[in-house]
Amino acid sequence: MNTLSGTFDAVPLEALFPDASVADLGRLRRSADGIDGVQVRGKFQVWEWFPQHVTFPGRSVAGTPEILLAEVSLYDAGGDWLEVSLDVEWTTEGLLNVWSAISVACWCEVDHNAHYVDPVERAVVGATSLADAFETVAGRFIAWLAGPRDPEFWRAHASLPPRKQR
C-alpha cells in the first residue's frame, strides 16, 4: 500500500482533495495547525496520506479507504494504551467523512483490542463542506489532546471494564 507520511506542511492537499476550494484548503491547514500546536510531550505529530484513495474506490472495496490520517499516542505502558485518531475517509456511499475518536485498550472478557470512546464524525454532504467537517472534528481532537491521559478515566467514562490486574 502506498502510504506517505510527514508534517502537515508536506500533505499534498490539492492532490488529495481536488474538488475542495482554495478557501476550504486554507481552513484545513489552519485546523491542522491547531492540532499540531497541541504537542504531546516528546511526540511530534505525523500525518499519513493515501494517494491511492483520492478517487472513491467503490462499494466493493473492503475496509475504510482513508485519505488522510493523524494518530497520537497519549499513553502506552505495561500493555495498556490510549490514543486519539482523526481520519478523512470515504463512506460506502461515496461521500467524504471526517471522523475522530479516543481509542483505549480493551480489557473485556472477549478481547476487542480497542474501544472507540465518544467518536465524532461529519459527512461532507449538502451544506457541510470538507472544511466545515474538518474544523468540527479537529476541535474535538484538540480537546482530547489537552484532556486526561489516563486510560482508566476513558474506560470509566465509556462504562468499559477496568484494566485487569496481573
Overview in brief:
The chain has helices spanning 13-16, 22-37, 130-146, 151-157, and strands at 4-6, 47-49, 66-77, 80-90, 96-105, 114-123.
Would you give an account of this structure?
This protein has 166 residues and is α+β, with helices and mostly antiparallel strands. 27% of the residues lie in helices and 30% in strands. It has four helices and six strands. Strand 4 and strand 5 (96-105) form a beta hairpin. It is globular. The chain starts with a strand and ends in a 9-residue tail after the last helix.
Given helix and strand content, the structural type is alpha+beta
Label the overall shape.
globular
How many helices? The count is 4
As a percent range, the share of helical residues equals 25-40%
Strand count, sense and barrel status of the largest sheet are: 6 strands, antiparallel
Radius of gyration: 16 Å
Strand order of the largest sheet: 1-2-3-4-5-6
Which runs of at least 5 residues are low in confidence (pLDDT < 50)?
none
